[in-house]
Write a structure and sequence with these properties.
Structural class: mainly beta
Helix content: under 10%
Order of helices and strands: EEEEEEE
Number of strands: 7
Radius of gyration: 25 Å
Strand order of the largest sheet: 1-2-3-4-5-6-7
Length: 192
């Protein structure tokens, strides 16, 4: 996953304490998943190579708010919340190849699959950070969560065997929710 943004904050130019805590921006985010699987039978007679590429690009507008509160004794609490609406463009490509060597002949099989989807997603995030100024540096602990109302999910074809009737004819993409959470610490040491 990666992302870039262009944003602005409303400042009055008089004092940083008087600046608005709100920011607005345009963002591009991406979720890119590549899978490559190679399997070989223990006798070495059968070899399977599977590759798939699932890419989603999110184009949108967001609003964010930053607040920092002095808790005394060198502690500060920071909160950052962000919410936005995004257009999502998703593409899927998959390739399967197999080879079976069985004495008198070699059998090769391959298949390609493609699918695409476009949708709209809400993305929201919240970050809470507790910092302690220790004189020569600032130490902080944080917790962060992010929510995507649309994340791609591949539904694989399961209806190509004549003896089995599957529920999904052809490979397709559908949306599902996604969450991410992270926790950590940081140490800021000024260089001046």
């Amino acid at each position: 996953a990666w992302g870039v943004a262009l944003e602005t904050q409303f400042n009055n130019g008089l004092s940083p304490a008087m600046n608005s805590p709100f920011r607005v921006g345009l963002a591009l985010k991406a979720l890119q998943q590549d899978t490559h699987l190679i399997a070989t039978e223990t006798t070495g007679n059968e070899h399977v190579d599977y590759y798939e590429d699932l890419d989603s690009f999110y184009y949108g507008l967001y609003i964010a708010v930053d607040r920092s509160m002095d808790l005394g004794r060198g502690f500060t609490l920071g909160v950052n919340a962000e919410a936005g609406a995004y257009f999502v463009d998703t593409s899927y490509k998959g390739r399967y190849t197999a080879a079976l060597e069985c004495g008198c002949s070699n059998i090769h099989d391959s298949a390609d699959s493609k699918a695409s989807d476009q949708d709209v997603s809400f993305i929201g995030s919240l970050r809470v950070e507790l910092n302690k100024n220790i004189g020569w540096a600032t130490f902080g602990l944080f917790a962060e969560g992010e929510y995507y109302s649309y994340a791609p999910k591949v539904k694989y074809n399961n209806n190509d065997n004549p003896s089995v009737t599957g529920t999904n004819i052809g490979t397709s993409i559908e949306g599902d929710e996604a969450y991410s959470y992270s926790f950590g610490g940081r140490l800021n040491i000024p260089l001046n």
